[in-house]
Every structure is written in structure tokens, then in C-alpha cells.
Amino acid sequence: xxxxxxxxxxxxxxxxxxxxxxxxxxxxxxxxxxxxxxxxxxxxxxxxxxxxxxxxxxxxxxxxxxxxxxxxxxxxxxxxxxxxxxxxxxxxxxxxxxxxxxxxxxxxxxxxxxxxxxxxxxxxxxxxxxxxxxxxxxxxxxxxxxxxxxxxxxxxxxxxxxxxxxxxxxxxxxxxxxxxxxxxxxxxxxxxxxxxxxxxxxxxxxxxxxxxxxxxxxxxxxxxxxxxxxxxxxxxxxxxxxxxxxxxxxxxxxxxx
Length: 257
Known about the structure:
Blueprint lengths: L1 H19 L4 H10 L4 H25 L5 H25 L7 H20 L1 H10 L9 H19 L5 H10 L5 H25 L5 H21 L5 H21 L1
Helix pairs in contact: 1-10, 2-3, 3-9, 3-10, 4-7, 4-9, 5-7, 5-11, 6-8, 7-8, 8-9
């Protein structure tokens, strides 16, 4: 019966992702923790889940010309080495995966709080970025993008959260003249190698449950497609604040306890 529960969980998350576009990690990892999986298994399995589910979206956006590959490369120059170094740190500083469970939980809480804030303040972020789009800060966009890539590499590896919502917010702030489709496409294209690299690191550490991963994919892949079809009929302005409130509450629990 457990497999039916996991398939259902994958379907639920996939449906919400399809409707709102909010990253699955922010929803899936807390859900797996609620099911009783330890943090290292929840994070590691969700990273592989994210890499596989986002790959199709990245291909689709590339075919439509929505990916700014120069920005993907710049983010990846920061994120991929940071992900590798984070994995090496976990391997060298801790003997067992359970020993760094508290670190993963705290990182998850921090990223969930940031994700909730991004969801709530999305319109304000866009307005702020437009206001300073032609200012003196433009010359710092390259180094800032690289630094933000490092931030994502560290925290996505530790929490499995942030490659979607927070990555999108970073691109909106640093590159306000990008079309919204290019922001989404570029973020997804970067999220695939980042989550794959972080997932492979966790696989090396023994933190991926392949039985669970398969069940989640069975449920989520068709549900994401269904959610995308329903997205026009669901009141997103109501659903997004509700999800942000839930994520904020969960994030506060893991960040501070």
C-alpha cells in the first residue's frame, strides 16, 4: 500500500506544479519528511526527481528559444562546483548521513521561507528590478550572477529547494529586461544540471531511494501535464498565497527547530 501513497503524493505535487509553476522541491521534500523519511533520503531522492521532471521542460523551452544559454553557463560556473564542494564537505565532516540531518533540515527551512517570500513578493520584485534596470548596478550583473549560482549550488544540494522559485527571482532581479518566458526557460535549463549534479552527489552518499523515486515519477509525470491544462481554470491569485502561507509555516518549523 505504501507505493500507492507515494504515487498519490507524486500526483498531488505534480498537479500543483503544473497549475502554479512552483518548484516541486518546495512541496515534495516536506511531504517526504511527513511520511517519515529521514532528511538525507528526502533531499537526495527529491533532487533526482527534480532533475528528471525538469528535463522535459528544459528541452521544450530550448526548442521555443526561451533559454539564454550564456546565463545558464554563468550560473552553472558557480552552482556546479559549489554543489560538488558541498557534497565533499558532507562526506568529509560527517561519518554517517544521519549526522548531518539537522543541517539539511535547517537549510530546508531557510529555503522554504525564502521561497514563500518570493511567491508573495513576486510583483514587487519585478517592479524593483525594472526601477534599477538601467542603473550603475548593471556592470555587476556578471559577478552577481556567478555568486548567486554559488548560493544556489550550496543550498539546493543541502535542501533540494530553490532551483525554481529562488532561481527565477534571481534572474528577474539581475536581468529585468528578459522576457518572462526567457526567465522561466533559463531557470529550468539551469535547474536540470544543478539538481542532477546534486542528486548524483547524494546518490554517491547513499541518499537516494530508487523505489520511492520510481513511484513519485509514476504519479507526477501525467499529473504535471494535467495541471498545465487546468491552470487556466484555477484561481492562481488565490492558490499562490495559500501555498506561500503553508511553505512559510513549514519553513519556520525546520529553520528554527
